[in-house]
Amino acid sequence: MSFYTSLNGMKNAQTSLGVIAHNISNSETYGFKRSRTEFSEIVAGSALTNPRMIQGIGASVESITQNFALGPVEQTGSALDLAITGDGFFTTRSAVDGTTLYTRAGSFSMSDTGHITDSAGNRLQVFPVDANGQVTGNGISDAQVPAVNAAGSEFAGVTITETGLVQASYADGSVEPIGAVALASFISPNGLKKVGSANWESTGLSGAASYGSPGSGAYGSLLSGALERSNVDIAEELVGLITAQRNFQANAKAIDTATQISQTVINLRS
């Protein structure tokens, strides 16, 4: 029994090492959120077992929990670099298959079609607005800046306010509202599914996304010209790395000790 208990402990330590290694390797990934491994005790006993004689049979990985704490904010100066100074996620949609993704990495740029996209070409989602910049509906759509305005003047630049209003400026000096950035929130963010590139997808565990404007309710404001860095604390991860390594070594030593005891018993019988 001790062989399997210790072997299970080694596998758990290996899982913990993998999670920590993943955190450390993404310490420079914008919008990345660290994870931690949580374990639970395993016991076995029937209705007739004396509760004072129940012996534990090891531990199992209960969950790998994501930590959505705010990471450090780095100033970049680019108008389309956005950081959320609170809760919420940017919403993007793939132009290829229509997949909806959620992210904290706000590094956006203009595409050749005038869409505001991330590095993978996923399009930022916004609420519709009127000529005064007021939100006029709850539906979201791709953020797209016209190359020329109604007067025929060419596009000159784009800015995004702390309340998420996307404004395009043109060569004739006019400024036109394009939309308002839609932030998403979830009743259980830990239920979001990682899909890579600091993106998540909603699941049955996270619940459906609720959309709102930056700076309203529980949604954080936007900071233009800045990006949110990874929330990984290298010092904390290195301590966890040492602990996981010691746990692995201790379980390996327990297996070695059980082997020696078994060998001693076999020698006694012979």
From TrEMBL:
Which segments constitute the Flagellar basal body rod protein N-terminal domain?
A: 3-33
**Domain Flagellar basal-body/hook protein C-terminal, which positions?**
224-268
Domain Flagellar hook protein FlgE/F/G-like D1 residues, every copy: 83-168
Q: InterPro entries from the xrefs?
A: Flag_bb_rod_N, Flagellar_FlgE/F/G, Flg_bb/hook_C_dom, FlgE/F/G-like, LlgE_F_G-like_D1
- Could you list the residue ranges that cross the membrane? none
Question: Which family is annotated?
Answer: Belongs to the flagella basal body rod proteins family.
Protein name in UniProt: Flagellar hook protein FlgE
This protein's species is Erythrobacter aureus
